[in-house]
Amino acid sequence: MHGVIEARPDFPDPPGLARRYPAWLACAAVAVLAYVAWLSTDIGTPYLRRVVSDMVFIVAPLLAATSTWTAHRRRRERHHGWAWICAGCVTWAVGGIIWAVYELGLDQVAPFPSFADLGFVLYAIPIAIGLTRFPTGTSTLWSRLRISLDTVVMTGCLLLTSAAWVLAPIVSSASGFTRIDALAYPLADVAIATAVLARSITFVRSRRVIWMTLAAGLLVEALTDSVYVSRVFSATFEPGHLLDVGWLLSFTLIAIAAQTPSPATALERAKVPEPPGLLGQLLPYLCIGVAAWSFVVRRSELQLHGFYTWFVVVLIIVAVARQVVVTADHAAVTRDLSAAVKRRTADLKRREQWWRDIVQNLSDVVMVIDREGEVQYCSPSVLGALGHWPRELHTTDGLRTQVHPDDVDAVLKRIVPVLTGAQQRGKVEARVRRADGSYAWFEITVVGQLTEKALQGAVLTLHDVTERHELTDRLAHQAYHDALTGLPNRAMLMQRIDEELLQGTGQFALVLIDLDDFKLINDSHGHASGDLVLEAIGERLRDTVRDGEVIGRLGGDEFAVLLHGSAEAVHQGAERVAEQIARPVVIAGRTFLVSSSIGVVWVDTPDENETSSTLFSHADIALYDAKVRDKGGIVFIQGAQREDAARQVHLREQIAQPRLDQFTLVYQPVVDLKTGIVRGVEALLRWTHPELGPISPVDFIPLAEHGGSIRKLGWHVINTAMEQLAEWQAYAPHHRLAIGINVSVSQLDEPLFAERVLEQIERHGLMPDQIVLELTEQALSRDFETAVSVVAELRAAGVSVAVDDYGTGYSSLRYLHRFDADVVKIDRSFIAKLEGSEHTQKIVRSVVDMAVSLDLQCIAEGIETPEQRRIVQELGCELGQGYLFAKPVLPAEIPALLDCDPARRQQTA
Asked: What pTM does this model have?
């Protein structure tokens, strides 16, 4: 092998260098051509031509120095050649400056020799050093010896050529320091030319453009200097001559070489064998030819000095020795190349076997199909993928027999266009038959290779994606099914309902089921037992429905069924579901009794605006009604009832984000039955909807509690009522009023509820015992323990608590036993039946007697007639409220009721 080029990466070129390079070439060409055109004319005075010529001698090398220095900064980690070239350009520029001083400052032609010659001659030293600093290839002993002899031969030939044309006249006509100065020019030029030619043999060919441009600039510089010396001794040189173009062109080429972008294919620390190129082999012969021609043409001059004859003899001997070395080097190169070819061949075989082993051991099936659809190759991995090697796998028609019939068209749609060249690649997923007759999912990829030389057809790859499909199916099942029971979930039920509504082909109903008090099972027996009960009920419901009907679990203890048929058939189906749920559930020897509340919405003729969401909302309203009325019941809505349900849905949406400016408070007085004095008021919330008008509290309060907005409304009532009480207190400071505020049990669950109430009382300047928080007996039954703890904290701070609607619950005595209340309010349903009913009077008397024995105040609600007032008063009740005294009124009307108070009139008087 001739040599190995050790190439290292340069620093990245600056952004935009490649884009600016053509513009620099154009500018350089224009500048040189313009200078040539100007020198070719007589434009300008001799002095002006001298000035321009001297400025070129300074500016051109300085520009080249700047360009080479920037190149050095980009490549300083690789070599320092450009830095030495820069130093040479600066040295030459110094000579140009001294020359200009002679001509422009001293107004005389620079003498020969002069100090300017130091710069023009000594520049060759850093230039030659810089050329040796550029990277070269390492080589064998024979190649290094050949390069050394090539350098000696080219140096001798160039010296002989220079002697024939330049040195001989100088030696014969000059003497002393003039001769030394004159000889220095051609010797320096010969040194540079030799260095350039020697390096041309070993330069890195991947940077051919950079080196050739630099070499051209240096050779033009050497040639121009030699011509300059010859003209000086022939007395034909004058500044501003066309010879000046040579120096401008040389430094321009050097600057362009330094700014030439590095090739994108530069090797990075790779060792690439590069035998000598044709130019490297011909250069020594070209130099010998030029020297021989010069010797023949200028023989008369050279014969005057016998030294040249002996020089030629020695040069011939060196050339003969060089040829012997070249022969040996070629033999070594041939051996190295032969060994390299063997190594490369073995490496290619190893790579081929390496790729073959990879393809044969791939889990994917790789097939090669030619233009006619014949299978040219099939990897052995087909045995692992399909469990056998199908005999039919010889053509695309045979491949089609292995594909699932439902997927054949999709596969052919992707493969055929690639085989015909209409498309470059295609991909499809399809089911392919295995040896056991089952089908597995494969991703089939086909890539066209119609333009390749060795392989013309298509490469088809089968990648097993069965696990991915199974995972996708599992995820899809999980997305539409309940994890515990395996039943369809809400998403699937809604999808099926939308399909039913879209088809509009029959009557159907959505049945929502809620297991009553299921929380008790989880609390008493643990969630594991609760899950087993849910699974058992889900299995029962699955066996209950008919074909085409859907049973699903919505989450928690809620189920849903999609039934078909008439209203009567659906009602019977709902009763059948309730009966199945009510059957005892036996789990691990324990028996669980479960009841359910059911809401049914039946659809006869679907409305075009009907959706699964609206249907669920209507059914949810029916279920809510079923739980409110009586647990274990069934509420069935249809026709006009669905309009009411739609209204309930609309109200539920509105109450979920209540606008407080639509809500107002009215106040109903609580009076002393004996004196008629107003002892307090009860704050009552009213809602005036901008579209639906006044909404009854009976309608919107349950919705607010169910949707969670009751807390926001509750704090609005508390803040507004206390603020209003403070105003009345300021109006009538001697009339002590109490205000009753209805509180939902869900409000008591709020953190720091009692603290916030006490903060509001203090902020409005009220006394704690002026505030009476009213809780209904039915509300207490839902979360009694929480109410007990919060009420105890409030009463400890002085706040009064009342049990509202007393007598409508099932465990009134139990509540009063533990619930530390201050007031009992007898429900209006008892007061309405007082007249003519001794039984009701006895019930009321017992309540009053119990309240008195427990030191509780007793308030009779709903007094509407004087007779009811008389009876209640006789039964021992002290306070009452109702339409007989005043209806709920706006805040502005309360002061007038206070003025009617006899005590108030007496105080005013």
From this structure: 0.44
